[in-house]
Fold:
Amino acid sequence: MRVRFEVTAGLLFFLLLAPIAGRTAEVEEGQFYDRDRDRNVPFMAYWPNLANVPAPVVIFSHGLGRTRETASYFGRALASAGYISIHIQHPGSDGELVSQARSREEAGQILRASLGNLENFLNRSNDIPFVIDELERQNNSGPWAGRFDLSRIGMAGHSYGARSTMFAAGELVGPMGDFAKEPRIKAGVLLSLDLPRRDFDPNRRYGDIRIPSFHITGTLDDVLGMGTGSASRRTQPFKLIPYSPQYLLVLDGADHDTFSGTRLGTDIEKPMDKDHTTTVSQAAVAFFDAHLRGLSSKEHWIKLKFSHSLVFGDHFEFK
Structure:
């Protein structure tokens, strides 16, 4: 057997969350084990309160130096809307990298160095199809049997996790092509998309992407001086991807940490963070309703009415 689901004593816990739209969610923590790579992939699963009804799935990928706990607001919002949100952790590019850093600057140096690690990059890319394979296996037998609607799989990510989402969508990786493309993923949400440090023909880079995508950034969206993007640069993939529909939201005053739900290395929350994450959650739920569930009414709402919910300084467009 290629994979197994590992559960140890005390590994699973459940947390009742506040109801949204008349539903509640449970949170489950654990890890998958890939025998082929001898690799554990920790996860945090946000479950909707829908008994015996297979639900669409969204896989969430964290950014550099983060963990499966990243963007818990996102998982809770999706679960409360009837989705199963599986937040996976990528060992080698996760919080262990910066756990001993003595300053934000030192953390930035460590993260910059990790970007050049080919093994971490390949492991991140291979974690996605591995997890989907595992969900398919778990959907056939065991405690998760029958809980997933795997004809409706979406993906989302923050920063490097958004880039992982782009690879899964079909972004070409230089001479490697679209080796990481995952055709089982039908739609993607890209939070603070981390851009490549080396550019090549954009028409070639994005020409194989064929899924609807929602690009979300902020006017202050840079990270640790790493040069991976400003707000204006992070909008380029939206402009260059030839496939429609593509959506773009730029939140006034949002920075890179805003979208992860917590500030790296601190418990400090900027005054507007909660307002911004509420807007992101609303947009993501409507987007997946439109492009995973196929609800034309939600696509209509996004295109014609969503902008009315934004505040002065925010920007929304689609193509």
Remarks:
- The chain has one domain: 3-318.
- The two ends are 44 Å apart (CA to CA).
